[in-house]
């Protein structure tokens, strides 16, 4: 009975509009009741055990650091630096949007933060320069998923914590895929620039202009260096590096730029608490659901079902990617990761995949879901910030989605590309 009632309860509550954390929690409790009354007394311990992981402390710190840097106006400096580097080309502001997304990714690690920040700043600027609003939103959405791909990344922290995979290794492995997404999207912009009539920049900037832009954005661009350098150099754990990032953000935003007020700090604290609370509610609820799935041997059943289709590793990897992309269309990516990672990771081990490679493949597939309708979070953020319709954004976004799916497949089937940086650093 429980095998059918649990998924029916979960999807039924989602259809009724219940928050995903509550939907998962209710479905999990139904599953525990199905196992027997004695398991109910153990459920609270399982919830706290699912949250009682030291690396999880890094999440609120990284979110807080990103909020501080965003609120203090650091985004403007990064955009000026990106514009000085690539803004002179045809479609220059679209190229600048992508490069700025790479820089911003190393600060926040959040796709929605990127979409909100650039939706408020770059999209209006692109409109003013002659770009259509749907296209400007599409470029912003396409670049926003670089945020959770290039470290620091909340998804990588969650995956590494629950699956026992090196977070430093995941951080290192995310660098090349993130840069590759940026390069592919910039190539797409360049290929369609003339046919779309994208405006051309004013010409190559002088060395003095580039130097001035570098000086303005230098302190912000230095934060990812501190974060990655301390983690990959073995100086600090991801949690300690996140705390360092908060201190650095407060120093730059509050002391150097003098752009933070006490009210700003209060609002930053409230927003950070809300975002962290939502993520932790999903993790806690998914712990119960995952416990039920383990008892019912759901991971083993899914693995066996996929292997009955084909024992060819490439075919199974393709099926995993397809499953993640389809589920990502209708479900929150944090919940999807927490529920499916314990299901799919054992299957990737059977296929002989490196745990870091498998983690990056799963995370990148879910990142792509952030910009696909009907529940792509970045689409909703851009629609609410700019007032543009999701359908109009999606029409301009499809070429970028296809390009990023191509990158995903390249990452999935070419392990050496993903593992090059971790191997180089001995991780």
TrEMBL record:
Keyword annotations of the record: Cell inner membrane, Cell membrane, Membrane, Transmembrane, Transmembrane helix, Transport
Function summary: Part of the tripartite ATP-independent periplasmic (TRAP) transport system.
Membrane topology designation: Multi-pass membrane protein
Residues in TRAP C4-dicarboxylate transport system permease DctM subunit domain copies: 9-414
Location(s) in or outside the cell: Cell inner membrane
Family stated for the protein in its record: Belongs to the TRAP transporter large permease family.
Primary location: membrane
Keyword Transport applies: yes
UniProt-listed InterPro entries: DctM, TRAP_DctM
Bilayer-crossing regions: 6-35, 47-65, 98-123, 135-159, 165-191, 212-235, 241-260, 272-295, 315-344, 356-385, 397-421
PANTHER family in the cross-refs: SIALIC ACID TRAP TRANSPORTER PERMEASE PROTEIN SIAT-RELATED
Protein name: TRAP transporter large permease protein
UniProt subunit comment: The complex comprises the extracytoplasmic solute receptor protein and the two transmembrane proteins.
């Amino acid at each position: 009975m429980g095998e059918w009632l649990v998924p029916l309860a979960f999807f039924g509550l989602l259809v009724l509009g219940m928050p995903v954390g509550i939907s998962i929690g209710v479905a999990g409790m139904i599953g525990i009741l199905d196992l027997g009354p004695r398991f109910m007394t153990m459920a609270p311990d399982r919830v706290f055990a699912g949250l009682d992981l030291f690396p999880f402390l890094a999440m609120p710190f990284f979110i807080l650091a990103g909020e501080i840097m965003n609120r203090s106006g650091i985004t403007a400096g990064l955009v000026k630096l990106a514009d000085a580097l690539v803004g002179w080309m045809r479609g220059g502001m679209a190229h600048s949007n992508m490069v700025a997304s790479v820089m911003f990714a190393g600060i926040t690690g959040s796709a929605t933060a990127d979409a909100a920040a650039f939706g408020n700043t770059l999209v209006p600027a692109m409109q003013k320069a002659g770009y259509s609003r749907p296209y400007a939103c599409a470029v912003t959405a396409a670049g926003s998923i670089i945020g959770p791909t290039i470290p620091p990344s909340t998804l990588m922290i969650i995956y590494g914590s629950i699956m026992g995979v090196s977070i430093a290794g995941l951080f290192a492995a995310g660098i090349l895929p993130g840069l590759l997404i940026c390069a592919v999207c910039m190539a797409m912009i360049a290929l369609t620039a003339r046919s779309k009539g994208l405006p051309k920049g004013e010409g190559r900037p002088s060395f003095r202009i580039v130097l001035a832009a570098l000086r303005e954005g230098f302190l912000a661009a230095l934060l990812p260096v501190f974060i990655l350098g301390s983690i990959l150099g073995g100086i600090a754990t991801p949690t300690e590096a996140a705390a360092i990032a908060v201190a650095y953000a407060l120093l730059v935003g509050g002391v150097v730029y003098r752009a933070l007020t006490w009210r700003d700090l209060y609002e930053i604290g409230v927003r950070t608490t809300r975002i962290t609370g939502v993520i932790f509610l999903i993790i806690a609820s998914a712990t119960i659901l995952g416990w039920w799935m383990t008892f019912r041997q759901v991971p083993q059943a899914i693995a066996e079902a996929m292997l009955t289709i084909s024992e060819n590793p490439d075919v199974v990897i393709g099926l995993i990617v397809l499953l993640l992309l389809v589920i990502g269309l209708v479900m929150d990516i944090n919940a999807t990761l927490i529920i499916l990672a314990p299901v799919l990771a054992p299957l990737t081990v059977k296929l002989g995949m490196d745990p870091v490679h498998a983690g990056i493949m799963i995370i990148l597939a879910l990142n792509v879901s952030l910009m696909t309708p009907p529940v792509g979070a970045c689409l909703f953020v851009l629609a609410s910030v700019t007032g543009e319709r999701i359908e109009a954004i999606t029409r301009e976004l499809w070429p970028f989605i296809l390009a990023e799916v191509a990158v995903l497949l390249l990452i999935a089937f070419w392990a050496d590309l993903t593992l090059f940086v971790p191997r180089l650093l001995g991780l």
